[in-house]
């Protein structure tokens, strides 16, 4: 009887350790690369280098764009810019990321939009070149386009 209790206790302890090990195991990056850079042109609002940062959780993904080269045309409050980022799929078509997330920015501050939310499928390969970022700021429409392919390459989702 004591042997059964000891074996059961040992089995429970081993199971608990295995579960704890899984809980603390590092998670694999679902999207690669996680960051990419582009050169963007935003017409009269400026242009230059921008960084795209992507995350993924299942079929949900987000992309955030930041650029010290592209400047806010007017002061804006947090979460007041409506943004639509269109990325081109390697297999054809596009994927759209949308949202109203942004930090507060003074006129002339570096632009940041996101995280913008979208839906992806396993194996999607998405590129900024050929797509666009459209932002509406107090009724002012700003459209930015990549002037070349993103580096180090397209986002590939798991």
Strands, total number? 10
In sequence order, what are the helices and strands, one letter per element? HEEEEEEEEEE
Q: Give the rounded overall mean pLDDT.
A: 84
Helix content: 10-25%
- Distinct helical segment count: 1
N- and C-termini, Cα separation:
50 Å
Shape estimate: globular
Write down the Rg.
22 Å
Question: What do these coordinates show?
Answer:
- Keywords: Signal.
- Residues 1-25 form the signal peptide.
- InterPro entries: TAT_signal.
- This protein is mainly beta and 158 residues long.
- The chain contains one helix and ten strands.
- The protein has one domain.
- Strands 1, 2, 3, 4, 5, 6, 7, 8, 9 and 10 form a ten-stranded antiparallel beta sheet that branches.
- The longest helix has 23 residues, at 2-24.
Write the layout of secondary structure elements.
Elements: H1 2-24, E1 31-32, E2 35-41, E3 47-57, E4 60-71, E5 82-89, E6 94-99, E7 110-119, E8 125-137, E9 140-146, E10 155-157
Antiparallel strand pairs: 1-10, 2-3, 2-9, 3-4, 4-7, 5-6, 5-8, 8-9, 8-10
InterPro entries: TAT_signal (IPR006311)
Keywords: Signal
Signal peptide: 1-25
Brief overview, please?
This protein is mainly beta and 158 residues long. It has one helix spanning 2-24; strands spanning 31-32, 35-41, 47-57, 60-71, 82-89, 94-99, 110-119, 125-137, 140-146, 155-157.
Summarize this structure as a short list of keywords or feature phrases.
mainly beta, TAT_signal, ten-stranded antiparallel β-sheet, 158 residues, globular, signal
